[in-house]
Design brief:
- The model has no long low-confidence stretch (mean pLDDT about 90).
- The protein is globular and about 40 Å long.
- Helix content is about 40%, strand content about 30%.
- The chain has a single domain, classed as Aldolase class I (TIM Barrel).
- An 8-stranded parallel barrel has the order 1-4-5-6-7-10-11-12, surrounded by 5 helices.
- It is an alpha/beta fold and about 240 residues long.
- The chain is built from 11 helices and 12 strands.
- Keywords: Amino-acid biosynthesis, Cytoplasm, Histidine biosynthesis, Isomerase.
- Belongs to the HisA/HisF family.
- Its main location: cytoplasm.
- This is 1-(5-phosphoribosyl)-5-[(5-phosphoribosylamino)methylideneamino] imidazole-4-carboxamide isomerase.
Length: about 240
Amino acid sequence: MKIIPAIDLLDGQVVRLQKGDYQKKTVYNDNPVQEASKFKEAGFNHIHVVDLNGAKSGKFENLPLIQKIIDTTGLSVQTGGGVRSKADVELLLEAGLSGIICSSMAVKKPKEWIQAINNYPEQMILGLDLKDGKMAYGGWLETSDQSIAEFLKPMMNAGLQTVLSTDISRDGMLSGPNVQMYQNLQHEFPELNWIASGGVSKIDDLEELISLNIYGVVVGKAYYEGRIGLEELSAM
């Protein structure tokens, strides 16, 4: 299982939100490049960076900062937040991102999203964020009534390989990941690489996810709150 450290950017700072609520943020570092360097020094080569400003505005407000992280540390970065069109995807790939996470685009511009998957199947990551059992997008401010199976089918036919799924009710809450949800998703769609995100609070949570043979997990607040150390993470 891949352990993927997370950096959430809001107004140029490293933050964490509770359940995606922009009014409930905690600032952990004013220097995101410094934070990313810690992951590099611990032996990680790939991180997860979210532009929370972009998720709301649809513009890549923190892209220069993300590029600075890549240039300074040499880390491979997957990013999401503000991806609304195929042109956005191409802009981010040209900027040096190794993985592009999309949720709003997949809902609002499915034809462009399918085309992006066709063109860049290894780089495209679907952001499947679930809020009370429904798919959420647009900075988690909107939801869809479409079933997950119906939603995924055309993408899988186009060559989708990886899905990052977040249970919003657990995000930033340190309440433990929704293991049953990931187990169900992996059972129903075994051909996809599933990345779990949200709720990890301790090493035991990671070990439980490893037992599912899940592809990867994003770790954020548990690290920032000192519940899991970098040495422990890098040793997983």
